[in-house]
Amino acid sequence: MGLVGDLKEDVVGLVRDPTDEQKAILVAIVAIAIADRYFLWIDFPFVVRTTAAVGVGFIALFVVSYLLTGRLVPPDEDDEEEYDDEFHP
Q1: How far apart (Å, rounded) are the C-alpha atoms in residues 56 and 60?
Q2: Keywords assigned by UniProt (predicted)?
Q3: Contact status, residue 56 vs residue 35, Cβ threshold 8 Å
Q4: Into how many domains does the chain fold?
Q5: Does residue 31 contact residue 60 with C-beta atoms inside 8 Å?
Q6: Which helix (H) or strand (E) holds 73?
Q7: Buried b (16+ CB within 10 A) or exposed e, 50-80
Q8: How far, in Å, CA of 74 to CA of 46, rounded?
Q9: How far apart are CA 84 and CA 67, in angstroms?
Q10: Nearest-angstrom CA–CA distance, 68 and 42
Q11: What tens-digit pLDDT sequence spans the chain (89 residues)?
Q12: What is the pTM assigned to this prediction?
């Protein structure tokens, strides 16, 4: 299909039935935009403002990922082995 066809399918999939990862990334992008505008009103320098906004985006990404999936890191599809924690039996 090519690059354009793949991008079209990805955008249609995002709009019609987004995955949990796509939802988390979208929330992080919105959080970055909101934080950047907020820090602009405080009159922070550009580098500080964008660095802080990206930090807010990462925090939002991890929080939303945890709320959607119940874990911070998604499980590997190939990893069927259960983790055995010796401190929490």
Answers
A1: 6
A2: Membrane, Transmembrane, Transmembrane helix
A3: yes
A4: 1
A5: yes
A6: none
A7: eebbeebbeebbeebbeeeeeeeeeeeeeee
A8: 34
A9: 24
A10: 32
A11: 688 888 888 888 878 888 888 888 899 999 999 999 998 888 888 899 999 999 999 999 999 988 887 877 666 666 556 666 666 65
A12: 0.69
Amino acid at 40: L
User: What's the confidence (pLDDT) of residue 51?
Assistant: 94
User: What's the count of helices (H) and strands (E) in the chain, helices before strands?
Assistant: 3, 0
Determine, yes or no, domain membership for 60. yes
Inside any domain, residue 25: yes
Q: How far apart are CA 36 and CA 61, in angstroms?
A: 16
Q: What is residue 1's predicted lDDT score, i.e. its pLDDT? A: 62
The range of the structural domain enclosing residue 48 comes to 18-69
* Residue 38 included in any domain: yes
- What pLDDT is stored for residue 74 in this prediction? 63
pLDDT of residue 34: 95
